[in-house]
């Protein structure tokens, strides 16, 4: 019964997408939608097919973007979780550092991209710097929120039963905070991708953002829409992957 319901849902989504694409193609061919500004589905499909099969240029650009996003996500998340745990163990240090972190977090990181370009050049370094700056604060906030949100009754009961501070932290506080930390990681992955693409849009040697900027400058609207759809499906894919990873790792709950 559940499988049938899922198949019906998938069929409904597929029918909706087919109708939407059909209306878009028809409107473009009849001149109701100007392909110069909106592109047309057949042109977008042709651009993506050519980009992935003839020469494989899109595979190369996609690889550059994914590599930079993965490095940004791992580096930003590891640093944020480590610092969050240090803050949890040393509250005075957290209180002293909080104003400076709030100040840094208030800065618009995309506006810092030109500065990162000056420091790290047009290669992968500047893109990773923007991605890390976005990921770090999101994961740090989630880590701190997860640690603060631990049920106080569990802490009191653990201490009453004779648990040491170390045992309370690693056996009560940290496991209870993991679900909230994972929510932050899911957001951090999306923001790492957004930061990398944003930096590529400003200036880069390779990447989907750089390709998008070039296509926009040449009014290649089929290519622009194709890259935008590709980025959207990329975001959907990484979100789905993180959701499945979260469900499998938190199955013990």
Layout of SSEs?
Layout: H1 2-29, H2 35-38, H3 41-53, H4 57-89, H5 91-106, H6 113-120, H7 124-148, H8 152-160, H9 165-202, H10 208-217, H11 221-249
Helix pairs in contact: 3-11, 4-5, 4-7, 4-9, 6-7, 7-9, 8-9, 9-10, 9-11, 10-11
Commentary on this structure:
By secondary structure, this protein is mostly helical. The chain is 84% helix and 0% strand. It contains eleven helices and no strands. Helix 9 packs parallel to helix 10 (208-217) and helix 9 (165-202) packs antiparallel against helix 11 (221-249). The two termini are 27 Å apart.
Structure class:
mainly alpha
Q: What's the shape?
A: flat
Which H/E pattern describes the elements?
Answer: HHHHHHHHHHH
Main beta sheet: strand number and arrangement? Answer: none
Low-confidence stretches: none
What is the percentage of strand-forming residues? under 5%
Number of strands: 0
């Amino acid at each position: 019964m559940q499988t049938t319901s899922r198949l019906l849902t998938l069929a409904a989504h597929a029918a909706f997408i087919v109708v939407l694409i059909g209306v878009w193609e028809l409107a473009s061919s009849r001149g109701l939608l100007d392909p110069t500004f909106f592109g047309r589905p057949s042109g977008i499909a042709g651009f993506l097919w050519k980009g992935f099969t003839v020469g494989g240029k899109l595979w190369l650009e996609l690889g550059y973007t994914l590599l930079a996003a993965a490095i940004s996500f791992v580096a930003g998340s590891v640093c944020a979780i480590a610092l969050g745990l240090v803050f949890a163990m040393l509250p005075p240090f957290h209180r002293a550092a909080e104003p400076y972190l709030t100040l840094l977090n208030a800065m618009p990181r995309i506006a810092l991209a030109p500065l990162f370009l000056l420091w790290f050049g047009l290669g992968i370094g500047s893109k990773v710097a923007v991605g890390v700056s976005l990921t770090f604060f999101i994961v740090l906030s989630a880590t701190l929120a997860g640690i603060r949100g631990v049920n106080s009754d569990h802490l009191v009961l653990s201490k009453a039963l004779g648990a040491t501070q170390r045992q309370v932290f690693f056996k009560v506080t940290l496991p209870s905070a993991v679900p909230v930390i994972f929510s932050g990681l899911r957001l951090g992955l999306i923001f790492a991708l957004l930061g990398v693409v944003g930096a590529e849009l400003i200036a880069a040697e390779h990447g989907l953002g750089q390709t998008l900027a070039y296509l926009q400058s040449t009014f290649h609207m089929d290519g622009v829409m194709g890259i935008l759809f590709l980025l959207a499906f990329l975001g959907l894919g990484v979100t789905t992957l993180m959701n499945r990873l979260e469900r499998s790792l938190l199955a013990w709950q």
